Amino acid sequence: QVLLVESGGGLVQAGGSLRLSCAASGNIFRINVMGWHRQAPGKQRELVATIFDSGNTGYSDSVKGRFTISRDNAKNTVYLDVNSLKPEDTAVYYCNARQFGVGAFDSWGQGTQVTVSS
Description:
Blueprint: E1 4-7, E2 10-13, E3 18-24, E4 33-39, E5 46-52, E6 57-59, E7 67-72, E8 77-82, E9 91-99, E10 105-108, E11 112-117
């Protein structure tokens, strides 16, 4: 298991940008999948962006071209650069780490609030 701590959320105007960070308590270079999810009030949690141990990434259609996920293995940190923000991006953003196989785990952070004003 790893402990995940998100930071970087805040209040921003539409069109603005933020950098969300997810700091892990241990080495992340062997973690199979790390991702960012979000949950808006009254809605289900949705997957926003994923980065694999290979470095490959994936995005939901709603954020593709605006959000970028990256990982810095030396700092044990995963980032989500969110640009061209829209009011509908308002949500709590959660970091997730999944390890498969021997020693499998599925860890979540406590979330960071992103609020986009129109």
